[in-house]
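S.,

Sequence below, as promised.
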Amino acid sequence: MINTREGKMKVARQIDPTVFVHSPAGRQWQQIGVQDHHGIVVPLFSLHSEKSCGIGEYTDLFALIDWCRSVKFDLIQFLPLNDTGLGTSPYSALSAFALHPIYLGLASLPNLNESPALLEEVKLLQSQPRSFRIDYLKVEHEKKRFLRQYIQELGEPLVTSEGYQNFCETASWLKIFAVFKTLKMRYEWKSWEEWPAELQKPNFLLIDQLAEQYKEEVTLHCLIQYLCHQQLKAVKAHAEINQVKLMGDIPILNCRDSADVWFHRDLFNLDFCAGAPPDYFNEEGQNWGFPLYNWQRISELNFNWWIERLQVAANYYHLYRIDHIVGFFRIWAIEHGKKSTEGSFIPADQAVWVEHGRQIMWMMLEKCEMLPIGEDLGVIPPEVRSCLSMLGICGTRVMRWERKWLEDKNYIPLSEYPLDSMTTVSTHDSETLKIWWKEQPEEAKLFAAAKNWNYEPFLSKEQQKEILYDSHHSNSLFHVNLLQEYLALVPSLTWPNFEEDRINTPGTFCDQNWTVTLRPTLEEIIANQELKSLIEDIL
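The prediction came back faster than expected:
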C-alpha cells in the first residue's frame, strides 16, 4: 500500500542518514548535505522569460534560482546542456564538453551597450511571438547570425582578455571541438565519416593546421564557448549564494558523429552499437546507435578523458545524473547490421562486470567533487544496486513503477524506499502524471486502488497534489519532479491540451520530442501566489 497523507507526518527513518558521510562518496555527501533535498527538473529549452530570445537561456536561471529559494526548493536538475548542432535531442551531442550556444543569454553579453544596433537586434529577438513548440532551426539561425555580428563588432577585447586566454589554455578539448564544428559547417553538417579521407583520422598536428587555416571560424567557436562557460559558471555561483544545488546530466554514451569519437577514436569501439535487450515493454529490444567504449584503452590512459569530462561539468554543477548507470557495469552490444534481439551483454561474465563497474564508479568518486545520482530504472541486476549502495551512490525511484514485480506486484510503501535514492513521479522520458492517468487506465486503476481512491479517468487537482506530496515525503533523501507537474495544479499555467505536454517518447523521431515549452513566462511563474502556496503545502 502506498503511504497516504496523514497529518503531514514524515517517514520515520530506521537508518541515520549521516552514514553516507562515511561511505566512499562521503566527500561528495558533505558538500551536498546529508538531509532531505527537494527540487525540480527543468529542461532549459522549455523555459522562457521576457529577456530570452526564442528559447530558455542560461541567464534565465538566475531568476529561477531566486524563485526556488522563495518556495523552499533547494535543487534544480537539468537535462544535458551540450551542443547538439542542428539536432534537438540533448542526449546526442557534438561534444561531451562543449555547451550549447543556443542557450546563451544575448541580453547579458559583455559590452553589448556599446552597440546600439545590436541592442535593437536583441529587443527584436525578445519581442518575437512564442509558440507551444520550439523551432530549433529558426532560433539557431537567428542566434548564430547575431553572435557572428556581435563578435565582429565587440569580440576583440574578449580575444585579448586574460579570462579567455586562460580558458583556451586549460580546456584541452576546446580547439578540437572548434575545428570539428568548423568542418561540420563547411561540409554542410555531413558526418565526419563522409569527409575527405585526410580529415577522417585527425591528430594534434592536423588540428593545429586546420585551426590556422580556418582561424576566424575556429576563434568564433572558441569565443562562443567561453561566453557559455562564463554565463553558466555565474549561474552556479548565484545558486551557491542562495543555497540551491544544481544537478547536471552526463549521458553515459557519446554520439558517433561527435568531436570526441572523431578525434579520440581509440577510446571507442565502433564495431558495435549500444542498446537494450528485449523486455516486457519492448519485445524487439532497442538500438541507440551510439558506439561502445573501449574501456581497456581508457583504463590504460588512466581514465583521463572521463576525468576531464567530469571536471569540466563540475564548473557548472554540484551533482550529476548518470543515465543508464548499469551500462558502466555491462551493456547490451549489437553488432552492425544485426537486430537488437541478436545483441549480447559485454562483459558477459558477472564477476568481471561487477568489478568493472565498481572500478569506474570508484574513479568517478575519487576524481570529482560532484555527487552522482544514477538512473537505475528498468531491469537492473541486484549486484549493480548493491555496488552503488556500498559506494554511497543514489538510485532513482519513479513512484508509479515501484512495485514488487517478482512477488505480488503490489506497490512498495514509500517508507521502504532506499535512503540513498531520488523519488520522482515522472521523468523526461515518461508521460506526465495527467497523461499517464488518462492513457494508461489499467495502471492508474491499480495506483488508485493502492491509494484507496475510486478511479476516475481524469486525475483531479487534489489527487495530483497528494501524489506530489507523497513524492516529497518518501524515505529517499532526494525528492525531485518536473516543474510541469507543479504547474499542472494551476490551470492558467498549463496548456489546454495537456496530452501534448510530454517532453520525449523514447524510440521515436517526431517534432514533439524535445520541443515543448512551458505556457507561462518565468515572470508569470514567479508572480503566481497560488502556485507558491500549493508548493508550500506540498512540502
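The radius of gyration is 23 Å.

Coffee later?
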